[in-house]
Design a protein that fits this description.
The protein has about 575 residues and is an alpha+beta fold. Helix content is about 55%, strand content about 10%. The protein is built from 23 helices and eleven strands. It has a five-stranded mixed β-sheet with strand order 9-8-7-10-11, sandwiched between helices.
Length: about 575
């Protein structure tokens, strides 16, 4: 028999039943023979190991036993057993107790284990005794370190070891950085296999977002995120690629990267759309994507241009006409923030006008709303800014006057706009109805004529009744889930359509996380390790539904975009 073999309870029940009789008596007789053969009185000392193991005689092998770990049997509901014979040692059994359960022969270890045995954990143990396991601790530390974006050397910290031994678990031992990294990589590979298997059986469509980013170490990375709505109508997102892209960022090379990722995750025939920014290489990539199989509606819905980039480009174009008027205001604010000698003068002027010393926000080129907020703040300080700037400006034509503040006030004023005309809405609705009919036809073209007829009737019924709700907390996904029986086919189409992201914020968020992983202290991490850290962290956050805005700093992402823009990526 193999050392440390795991048996099922049924296997051991049969083994115990076969040994209830003569073999149990043989064990006692053999023990008495050992004492007589030794010629001396037993010392009375019994190893601590036997407190946690139960001996089962091996059939037809006198003096040989299978020793079952009672801790594993009672807590983990598995039968961990070791081969042992009279007169031999039990190093494997003691190592198992120490490494998997934190049980040692020392007084401290024994006392600690006794104390912990009475501890009831509702989350981890479900009301069962808790046993410390170094192996289990390493697994959870690997997840914790990656979630908190800590270096792998965290487990080697002497201060952490002292804290754990003195306050939590005396049996704690520090974790080598290589061990922590290897365990994290093993968890990542296991989760990746599960994700690939999930997509292999997924019956819907997915939407992708993708973008490129250059790290502080000047390494170009390409990120791919996949979005889908699962069978329970929950919106899901995963980062499935964060690879270094050393080749030229052409449309064809981007397509090859995307195709490789889709093939790897069984998504090649399940693509619905791709959200890109307005880079010409991304537009060229779409031309190659349209040549793939199973693309809906001849690719009319495949390419989704990032609305955030479009709005930003429109806003920047409008602000360009106002640059001659806004630049003096921005210059004055930069003086108060950067010039040390002018900070004192600025503070004096603020005190003179009864205003506090203002700390100005940053005007970021890729955050056009930052200009709006800057103007909002400047209007309150317009008298101070005018006096401060003009006192340092020799050219009278370049001085700030009231006309500039009038323009700034007009920019800040809220513009409510007007709603679309009914004819425009009607035209767009008719076009959307045609697209729904096209998607429905694609979904049922391989089915029988009766199925197609029922699908058409289902669509007509939906378009007739529509969505009638005045609920301010209306959730479209819950609405479709509640009507998935009434509209079985349309509910599947809704899952495909509603998942499409309007922007590439998901990729920008990944780059923000990548920037934290590749900080100054971990700048030498290999690209596969960076990919592991970024992807696994995203997957772990998805399990606890913590993917969202709280994990994402928009200003940090804007700085990344600005860096990419300046480098031509």
């Amino acid at each position: 028999m193999e050392e440390g073999r795991d048996y099922t309870p049924e296997e051991f029940e049969a083994m115990f039943a076969s040994q209830e009789g003569s073999n149990r008596n043989e064990e006692v007789e053999q023990g008495e023979e050992e004492e007589e053969a030794g010629g001396s009185k037993p010392s009375g000392k019994v190893s601590y190991v036997w407190k946690y193991y139960e001996k089962v005689p091996v059939p037809n092998k006198p003096r040989h036993f299978r020793c079952v770990c009672t801790v594993c049997r009672d807590i983990k509901k598995i039968m961990k057993s070791y081969a042992w014979s009279i007169g031999t040692g039990f190093g494997s059994m003691s190592r198992h107790l120490r490494n998997d359960h934190g049980i040692t022969a020392s007084g401290v270890g024994s006392q600690t284990q006794t104390q912990l045995s009475g501890f009831m954990s509702e989350q981890a143990g479900g009301g069962k005794p808790f046993f410390y396991s170094q192996k289990n601790m390493i697994d959870h530390m690997a997840t914790f370190v990656n979630l908190e974006e800590l270096p792998f050397t965290y487990g080697e910290s002497v201060n952490l070891e002292n804290f754990n031994r003195l306050a939590l678990q005396p049996s704690y031992s520090h974790v080598n950085r290589h061990t922590l990294k290897d365990r994290t990589m093993a968890q990542y590979k296991e989760q990746k296999k599960e994700l690939i298997a999930y997509f292999a059986n997924f019956d819907g469509r997915v939407a992708l977002t993708s973008d490129t980013w250059t790290s502080k170490q000047n390494n170009p990375f390409m990120c791919v995120t996949v979005h889908w709505i699962d069978n329970d109508f929950f919106l899901q997102k995963r980062i499935i690629a964060f690879d270094i892209m050393e080749e030229k960022h052409t449309g064809y090379n981007i397509y090859l990267r995307l195709k490789k990722t889709l093939d790897k995750f069984n998504l090649t025939k399940k693509l619905f759309s791709i959200s890109f920014d307005n880079a010409s290489a991304n537009t060229k990539c779409i031309d190659y994507v349209l040549q793939m199989d199973d693309i809906l509606l001849n690719g009319d819905l495949v390419h989704v241009r990032c609305c955030a980039h479009i709005i930003n480009l429109s806003a920047q174009e409008g602000l360009a006409f106002l640059a001659p008027l806004l630049e003096p205001i921005k210059t004055c604010i930069n003086w108060t923030r950067n010039a040390r000698s002018m900070k004192t003068q600025w503070k004096t002027l603020c005190d003179k006008h009864g205003l506090r010393n203002k700390q100005w926000g940053t005007d970021c080129a890729t955050r056009w709303n930052s200009t709006y907020k800057l103007i909002k703040q400047a209007l309150r300080y317009k008298n101070v800014l005018t006096e401060f700037y003009n006192s340092h400006q020799r050219d009278e034509d370049a001085m700030i006057d009231n006309s500039m503040w009038t323009i700034a006030a007009n920019i800040y004023a809220k513009d409510k706009g007007e709603s679309s005309s009914s004819s425009s809405v009607t035209t767009k609705s008719a076009r959307f109805d045609d697209q729904l009919h096209s998607i429905l036809f694609r979904r049922t073209q391989s089915s029988s004529s009766s199925t197609s007829t029922l699908a058409t009737k289902e669509l007509d019924d939906y378009l007739t009744h529509g969505v009638d709700t005045n609920d301010t907390d209306f959730n479209i996904l819950l609405w479709w889930k509640a009507r998935s029986i009434q509209f079985p086919l349309l509910s599947k189409i809704a899952r495909d359509v509603l998942v499409v992201p309007a922007s590439t914020v998901a990729s920008e968020s990944a780059f923000s996380a990548g920037g934290r992983v590749l900080d100054d202290k971990r700048s030498r991490l290999a690209p596969p390790t960076v990919k592991m850290c970024v992807c696994k962290r995203d997957w772990d956050l998805a399990k606890i539904r913590r993917q969202g805005a709280k994990e994402f700093d928009p200003l940090e992402a804007d700085e990344i975009v600005a860096t990419d823009a300046s480098s031509g990526n």
